[in-house]
Structures are given as structure tokens and as C-alpha cells.
Amino acid sequence: MNILLLGSGGREHAFAYKIANSPKCDRLYVAPGNAGTASIATNVSIGITDFPALKDFILANAIDLVVVGPEEPLVKGVADYFASQEETKALPVVGPKQKGATLEGSKDFSKQFMQRHQVPTAASATFTKDTIDEGLAFIRAQQVPVVLKADGLAAGKGVLICETIEDAESSFKEMLLESKFGAASEKVVIEEFLSGIELSVFVATDGKSYKILPEAKDYKRIGEKDTGLNTGGMGAVSPVPFAKGAFLKKVEEKVVKPTIEGLKKDEIDYKGFIFIGLMNDNGEPYVIEYNVRMGDPETQAVLPRIKSDFVDLLYAMGTGTLEDYDLELEDFTATTIVMVAGGYPGSYPKGDAISGLENEDGASLTFHAGTTTNPQGDVVTNGGRILGITGKGNSIEEALSNAYSRVNEISWKDVYFRKDIGQDVLNYGK
User: Which residues form a coiled coil (predicted)?
Assistant: First the structure.
């Protein structure tokens, strides 16, 4: 098959790595891609929301399957666009249509979906500028900490955990009155705080059946011991030691099945990945959020653990034949360390030369995110999160050792990474 993959991050490089290694893939194109995808696929300089240009490329290059990496084109209706065009209406697309993508595009929509279909989640209420006084009264009635969520897409940064009522009130006003997260915070969801330990469960579905992929735990804060500003993600581990069989069985029965059945009941045509952000609260799963695509950096730890053919999985999702797919997993552990530009998640420079990329070994994988090549052909920084280094091993300790060994071989000016990824799960329950 000729396959087109949309996106340019570490998640997309991990997708490209798995797709390119499948005998089912003839040609792989990535739009727009990065320096890592360029080494295993053909990068195409088309924007991920330029739907007419993407359609023209699909027709000119006999594309058989489209895989959508990030959320933005899904929320903006890329799958609907291809389905509405005569020449591409039969094209399999991995990624939900716009209505399904609203599970991520609107926190309010997803909370209502969970409540409607009895999916366990935190109690919440949604407010706008017009109901700001009711929102402030609602905040004053809460226990601290109080969780505030921008309703719309905010690049993973639209969630605030406020330790005092005063902080919650002022942040709530900033979000609604001063557009703290732009249009994303025209509505704000106020939510009770769930205590416990987080993890992510990933589900592949064709709208009828589903397969549960390996779970992962990611690390959002820029600082060690989960301090500092939120980021897109600083690392991940898979599998998660505290997510044993009994807990994952509860996740399937109480969360995954009602979610898939809820999509059917609401007549939402969903062919794609569902990322379920969960809190393990004393052995009970509660949904924090849905995302309508794979996570980044969790993908870099999850996909290497899929043993069965990945293109077969994607094609089965896109064509409604997932029931016949046999998902096989590797038994090793994978841990991902994200290397970022100095200054991230604030302002940061671009164009710094990266050294040490040539020493790849079998114990780790290097996934590019914010990279490009300069006119001289050197790989340089081109974003906030630059690389994700995934170590493999028979234990978390071994996987982390292999990941950090590779991290320490790579450098650029003001490189930064967390040195404590995975330590909390190593010490969990001790």
C-alpha cells in the first residue's frame, strides 16, 4: 500500500517507524514530517489542515490509506472532507470524523458524553462569560485543589490545578475575561480534583469492535518530581507496574466498553484511536479526559511494544475489519525520555545543531519531533520538544538505563531533559 501520514512530531516518527517496517507498506509519505521521518519516508510540504492540497496529493500518488497523527485536522474535519469528495469517499482514513473528534475538541462535550453513558469521571460543571458569577459561586463550594479546564484545544496546556480558592477564582476570571487560552477558554469546565496516580490507556477501534493497546504513564511537568509548568509531555513508561490485570479489567468493563457502546448509541462514526487519560483512585478507574489520537510521547513507548503487523492494524481500523485482527505484544518494557530546547515550554531558540545522532544501537530508538535539516544538511532544532529517546529492556530499570545512555550521547546548545522519568512507578507502593 501507499500510505500518507499526517503530522510532524515524535508520535508521527514512531508511526512512520512502525509503518515503514511493515512488508505491507510500499511507499510512505509524511506531511509535513521532520528530519527523522525524512530518513525512512518521503516528507511532503503540505500543511495538515490544507485539505484540498492533501486531496490532490492523494490522487496524484495513488494513496491507499491515510493515517492522521495530531488532533487539529481531526477536530477541523479532515475525515469528513475526504468522505465528502467523490474521488476520496472510499479512502480508508484512520482518525474519527468531526463529531467524534469533539470528544477532544470540547471538554464540555466529552463530560456530557461520559455522564450520558455512565463512564466514571469527576463531578463537574461548565461556565461561560455570561454565567461567571455562578461559576465563582461553584468554585467557592469546592474542596481544594480545584481543577479548571479550557473547553477547547489548548495544545495540552489548558488545564490548571489551583491549590487555593483565591487562585481558582482569579484563574477562572483570566480564562473567561482575558482569554488566557484564547478561544479555547470561551467555556471553562470546573471539576473536582481526583487523587491517585495517572495512566493512559489506548484503544484502537473501527467503530464496531476494539483492541486495547499497551497502557502507558506520561510526565507532563517540565521540572523533576512533577514541578513547574505543564508541557506536551517529558517522558513515558510502558507497561505501567500498578496497572495489573484486575485494574485493567475494570478499565475495560467500566470505561472502554461503555465508551465504544456510547459512540454507537450516539451514532458517532469513529474509526481511529481513543486515548483515555485515567486516574487510578484506590484501584478504581476514573476518566480525566479523552483524546482522539495517540498520545505524544506515550506513542514512542507504546508502539515499539506492538509485535503484530502495524499496517494490518491501521488498515483494519480504517476498513471496519478490526474484529479479525490478532493483536500481539512484545514482553519488553519501553521508557521514553523527551529532550527539549532550553527555555521550553516558554520561548526557545531554533536552528541549533544536534550532535551524536549517528550512534543508534539496538537497545534504544531515537524519535524526532522538533527537528529539521539546514541548507548544509545538518539536523538542527526546530521546536520545543526535539527528540524522544526510547529505551527497551526486561525491566523499567534496564529500559531507563538504555534510554539515558543514549540521551547522554546526544547534545545541542542548552539541551534539557528530566532525569527522574519512571522513578515514581519504580517506587509505587513502597
Answer: none
Q: What is the dihedral of CA 167, 234, 386, 65, to 10 degrees?
A: -100
**What pLDDT does 195 receive?**
87
- Model pLDDT for residues 217-265, shown as the tens digit of each residue: 999 999 999 999 889 999 999 999 888 889 999 999 999 999 999 999 9
Q: Give the contacts of 204 (CB within 8 A, at least 6 positions apart).
A: 210, 211, 213, 272, 273, 313, 317, 322
pLDDT at 401: 97
What parts of the chain have a pLDDT lower than 50? none
- What is the C-alpha to C-alpha distance for residues 149 and 179, in angstroms, rounded to an integer? 13
Q: What is residue 78's predicted lDDT score, i.e. its pLDDT?
A: 98
Residue 198 CB neighbours (<10 A): 15
Helix (H, G, I), strand (E, B) or coil at 7: strand
Distance CA 62, CA 58 (A): 6
In the prediction, which pLDDT does 156 show?
63
Pick the CATH number of 2-85 from 3.40.50.720, 3.30.390.10, 3.40.50.20, 3.90.870.10: 3.40.50.20
pLDDT value of residue 181: 83
The DSSP element (H or E) to which 204 belongs, if any, is strand 197-205
Give residue 137's region: left, alpha or beta (phi > 0; psi -120 to 50).
Answer: alpha
pLDDT at 174: 86
Whole-number pLDDT of residue 180? 82
Q: Which fold has domain 197-426?
A: D-amino Acid Aminotransferase; Chain A, domain 1 (3.30.470)
CA angle 51, 187, 96 (to 5 degrees): 35
**Do you know the residue count of the chain?**
430
This prediction has a pTM of 0.93
CATH 3.30.1490.20: which residues of the chain?
123-192
Measured distance CA(344)–CA(192) in Å, rounded: 29
What SS3 state is found at 207? Answer: coil
- Residue 342's SS3 state is coil
pLDDT for res 285: 96
Name the residue type at position 289.
Answer: E
Three cell numbers at 25? 507498506
